[in-house]
Amino acid sequence: MPEKATVEFWRNIQPIANSFKPDAKPEVYIANAATDDERYYMPFSETVFSRPLWISPSENKWCDILMAKGAGLVNRHYHPHEVFAYTISGKWGYLEHAWTATAGDFVYETPGESHTLVAYEYPEPMRVFFVVKGPLIWLDEHGNSIGHFDVHDYIAMARTHYEKVGLGRDYVDRLFR
User: What is this structure's pTM?
Assistant: First the structure.
């Protein structure tokens, strides 16, 4: 039940009874998703970290907050599926594009796009909410495939990290939908 309304025009509206269908899974609610508590951010590269927020193993899809506290880099990669990004704080971009994103900026990455993600030195850490579908295909300096990273790699990385920082390797399981 949400906070009780006092003066809002909708204060007397009753919630929907049985709002979830019998086969529906519960929502994921995470307070303070962009927390400063670094235990929740696993290393995604040497300089960029990821906080998983929602994971769908069956769809090879996840949502996260990517964070860099200073200059950062996620190596060259290709997306065979679309990606959405919303900038919470900081400054970042792709070496292959003319724009630089800051707080409030939205990015839609079309399927078939290759890029090199960089975070800039900035007074605030880079924090970007991403929705990633499908694998990242790692690329060499010529754009040739040299490996992949999918939701199952992401889950394994999260389990290892959360075990190491004391949250427990099964912490990530509560994010599966």
Answer: 0.93
